[in-house]
Design brief:
635 residues, alpha/beta, Aspartate Aminotransferase, domain 2, Aspartate Aminotransferase, domain 1, 3 domains, seven-stranded mixed sheet, 22 helices, globular, transferase, Cystathionine gamma-synthase, PyrdxlP-dep_Trfase_major, PyrdxlP-dep_Trfase, pyridoxal phosphate binding
């Protein structure tokens, strides 16, 4: 099993661009939510929509030095549309949220603004010799939203809810270009010397060479540790002075990673990123290559006429949900319904963007009747628009409930609503939700990637549904391919063995769920086999390898005390995220709903719930680890 990763370090350990961070003790999670410096000052990583990655922090410092007025900070986006939406969100939400726990001065017209910054090497000839083929030669535009510092919480909400921010790899690319440009200028500017008149001097060994496996920058660690998730450096510390702070990775580690990637050829050249995105779309659609067919791979979506053209790859899983919602809003103006207790930011997207949403958080029983009443009321009202869409997760996170998709489909058809299903937890080797849905969204960050070192999301349109033509036209016209080329490289590489990993994870998770369910110290195990099982069996694929996924959650008879002991005793990685190739645990409710624990409890989400994402470790070792943690709880 994985040894205990020190507080604040990357999960998995020593992984550049890791999407999780170690919070090994229950109290670490509580203190993180409180903003305690004991925890936040030690964090070198975090989930990218919640923790602004170190390279992005460094790039923000560069942007502020170039463009910001006093007492301003910035958010950076990969497109003008993203930046425009951020500006609109700040102006829309500022009056709505003022005084509700946030204190700031309402922004004046034009005070929140966008600056376009083009990143391009000065010396094109040197860039042409770069090992990453032509990446450095291509200008890259980033879009910087500048605003007063006290509006940072609002901008951060937009970053978190939509997943629109730039990736850490893109930020490192921009920082690298800035560094090599500075080096080039320093090397070629004439200077005076008592011995060398006005001669030009060039340092030996400098240039534009980078390795294809990662875009790294010595500037990755030039910003001090953030205070309370702020983009700003520590008070009183300049960027230059911060260079001595602890870095994410040593140069030795980066060089070692580079050697492994190049020596064993796991990554393709970045110049093939377009081809890799096409491969990702085919993989998600279930279209197999000739080689995959020879190897006996089977990916069956169960939808006639589906092709890779119906798949759109987003930069994050929440980005996929947000973009799907945006596309729907361009086809209608009604509210949406969030059916079941979904991941926290899904509900926030539905509530804060557009006309709002209804939340039916139990996702079973009387909620179906209430959903029908809402649909009928809006369909017959002269004052309200028809319901736009029904959003649900199959299964849900963290309660692992599965909605009755047959019933939701019938209601959606009767009242003209779209049905949007998030399949992240189930994953398409296990479940067929596309047959029922208009749109299927998923986080590719999770089990599809598995390695916990890259973000991504997908949107799949069902070509056989009534909303398809309008949705497809909207997506073709409006969707932006913003997945950075290096992120595409890692998503493609990581997902090559996706189909073979899922059955192993299924088997491990089922064994762990059964072990926990048999313990008298446990009062509830949330797992698709045990939770709303009839609904799950309806969508479970009929293949031999299909199972119940790798996620489960557990509530203990001893309440918070038992949860703390169990969590602290686990010898696996502990931190945010799920779907990793290694087992990962978190006190989910503490991390996702710390300021609304009572509200979450009303929907059956215990504040003491422990969520477990089971990985690929040896079966017996996993069971021994969980039994040991159970044994640590007093009888």
């Amino acid at each position: 099993m994985n040894p205990q990763v020190p507080l604040g370090e990357c999960v998995p350990p020593s992984t550049q661009y890791a999407v999780s961070v170690s919070l090994p003790m229950w109290e670490d999670n509580v203190d993180y939510e409180k903003g305690d410096s004991r925890v936040v000052d030690r964090m070198v990583s975090g989930y990218p929509r919640f923790f602004i990655a170190k390279p992005i922090q460094a790039l923000v410092t560069v942007v502020k030095d170039k463009f910001a007025l006093p007492n301003e900070t910035a958010m950076i986006f990969p497109s003008l549309k993203c930046a425009d939406r951020c500006v609109a969100f700040i102006y829309d939400q500022a009056p709505k949220q003022q005084g509700k726990g946030l204190e700031y001065v309402l922004p004046r017209p034009g005070q929140v603004r966008i600056v376009t910054h083009v990143v391009e090497p000065i010396n094109k000839k040197a860039a042409a010799l770069d090992a990453t083929t032509n990446v450095l030669q291509v200008p890259v535009a980033i879009y910087c939203v500048l605003f007063p510092e006290d509006l940072f919480p609002l901008a951060k909400q937009y970053w978190q809810h939509t997943g629109d921010g730039i990736s850490a790899r893109l930020a490192d690319h921009c920082l690298h270009i800035a560094r090599v440009n500075e080096e080039f200028e320093q090397e070629t500017i004439p200077f005076s010397s008592p011995n060398i008149g006005g001669a030009c001097r060039r340092k030996q060994g400098s240039g534009y060479h980078r390795t294809p496996s990662s875009v790294t920058s010595p500037s990755s660690s030039t910003v001090s540790t953030p205070v309370a998730r702020s983009l700003l450096p520590a008070a009183g510390k300049s960027t230059e002075a911060a260079k001595g702070d602890s870095s994410l990775f040593s140069e030795t580690k980066i060089e070692a990673d580079t050697f492994v990637e190049e020596r064993f050829g796991r990554n393709l050249s970045l110049k093939y990123s377009t081809n890799m995105k096409a491969a990702l779309r085919r993989r998600i659609a279930g279209a197999l290559s000739e080689e995959e067919q020879k190897q006996g791979a089977q990916v069956e979506r169960g939808v006639a006429g589906l092709s890779a053209d119906e798949v759109f790859v987003a930069t994050t899983g929440m980005g996929a949900i947000f973009q799907a919602h945006q596309a729907l809003l361009r086809t209608g103006r009604g509210k949406s319904v969030c059916f079941g207790f979904s991941y926290t930011d899904t509900l926030k997207v539905l509530e804060k963007f557009g006309p709002g949403a209804y939340f039916l958080g139990h996702g079973e029983g009387a909620d179906y009747d209430e959903l029908e009443q809402i649909l009928d009321r809006h369909a017959t009202s002269s004052e309200e628009e028809p319901i736009l869409a029904i959003f649900t997760e199959c299964p849900s996170n963290p309660l692992l409930k599965t909605a009755d998709l047959s019933r939701l489909r019938s209601l959606a058809d009767r009242y003209g609503a779209a049905l949007v299903v998030d399949e992240t937890i189930g994953s398409f080797p296990n479940v067929d939700v596309l047959s029922w849905a208009d749109i299927v969204v998923s986080s590719l960050t999770k089990v599809f990637s598995g390695d916990s070192n890259v973000m991504g999301g997908s949107i799949v349109l069902n070509p056989n549904r009534a909303h398809y033509a309008r949705l497809r036209a909207t997506m073709d016209a409006e969707f932006e391919d913003l997945l950075w080329c290096e992120d595409a490289v890692f998503l493609e590489r990581n997902s090559r063995d996706f189909m073979s990993r899922v059955p192993q994870i299924n088997a491990n998770a089922l064994a762990v769920a059964q072990l926990l369910a048999a313990s008298p110290k446990v009062i509830q195990v949330n797992y698709p086999k045990f939770t709303t099982p009839a609904n799950y069996e309806l969508i479970k694929r009929k293949t031999a390898d299909a199972g119940y996924g790798g996620l489960l959650s557990v509530v203990f008879a001893g309440g918070e005390s038992a949860s703390r002991i169990f969590y602290d005793s686990l010898s696996c990685c502990k931190g945010p995220s799920l779907g990793t190739n290694f087992t990962l645990a978190s006190p989910y409710t503490i991390l996702a709903h710390f300021t609304e624990l009572d509200w979450a409890a009303k929907y059956g989400v215990s504040p003491h719930l422990v969520r477990i994402s089971v990985g690929l470790e040896p079966h017996n070792e996993l069971l021994a680890m969980f039994q040991s943690a159970l044994d640590a709880i007093p009888a």
